[in-house]
Specification:
Pfam family, one: DUF3606
Number of strands: 0
Order of helices and strands: HHHH
Distance between the termini: 58 Å
Protein name: DUF3606 domain-containing protein
Strand content: under 5%
Organism: Pedobacter soli
InterPro entries: DUF3606 (IPR022037)
Helix content: 55-70%
Length: 68
């Protein structure tokens, strides 16, 4: 029988946006506004913390690159 406890420990954190308190928690944790967080979830079509942080990092890099 598979150990389900170890399986759930490996799972990535899920970003919940349904409640305002959840949105505010994740926005504060990630250092973005709740609107930016919602946009990131829409753009990635994903709610895992890893995917959202990767997307936000890529967006910051795009904004910090000067136009040549």
């Amino acid at each position: 029988m598979e150990n389900l406890n170890s399986t759930t420990a490996i799972q990535d954190e899920i970003i919940l946006l349904s409640e305002e308190t959840d949105r505010n928690y994740w926005a504060n944790r990630l250092g973005v506004s709740s609107e930016v967080l919602k946009s990131a979830v829409r753009a990635t079509r994903c709610i895992t913390l890893q995917q959202i942080t990767t997307y936000l990092s890529q967006q910051k890099k795009k904004l910090s690159v000067p136009n040549s």
